[in-house]
Amino acid sequence: MFEVSDAQKFGVGLAGFGISFIFVGILLFFDRSLLALGNLLFIAGLTCVIGPQRTLRFFFQRHKIKAAISFFGGITLIIFRWAFVGMILEIYGFFLLFSGFFPVAINFLRRVPILGAFLNLPGLSMLLDKLAGDSSRTRV
Questions:
Q1: Which UniProt keywords apply (predicted)?
Q2: HEC string of 53-120?
Q3: Interval 129-139: pLDDT, tens
Q4: Is the pTM for the entire model greater than 0.90?
């Protein structure tokens, strides 16, 4: 097992609040200030969890530059009062950035007792299989 530092615990909290603010901002008809605050908290939380250098390396890898431009371009559009278009661009960049993590997360959620039974229903299971990609890639 590995030990989680206080900064990483704080970062998980910041990222959680960031996602919550983004969700509430979307529910309140794309409230620009909540979306911008949520984005700021999410990025600050990610930085606390993995560190500043690894965060910069994550966002600015050569093969992820299109995703990073979309993600940060969406944040910029939100700040400049184009919340709906910015959110679409940001979600696109988010899926490109974190697409490598989705198979691991989906396979983990399938092992959670109650949620796993729901995620293994025939129609939903087929959809999640397409989202997760090749299942042999994620086995440990």
A1: Golgi apparatus, Membrane, Transmembrane, Transmembrane helix
A2: HHHHHHHCCHHHHHHHHHHHHHHHHHHCCCHHHHHHHHHHHHHHHHCCCHHHHHHHHCCCHHHHHHHC
A3: 887 775 555 44
A4: no
CB of 132 closer than 8 Å to CB of 138 = yes
Contacts of residue 89, defined as CB under 8 A and 6 or more positions apart, other chains included, come to 70, 71, 73, 74, 77
Q: At 128, list the tokens.
A: 């999640």
CA separation for the pair 98, 104 (Å, rounded): 11
What is the rounded CA–CA span in Å between residue 74 and residue 95? 13
Residues 55-93: tens digit of each pLDDT: 999 999 999 999 999 999 999 999 999 999 999 999 999
How far from the centroid of its chain's Cα atoms is residue 131's Cα? 15
> Helix or strand or coil: residue 51?
coil
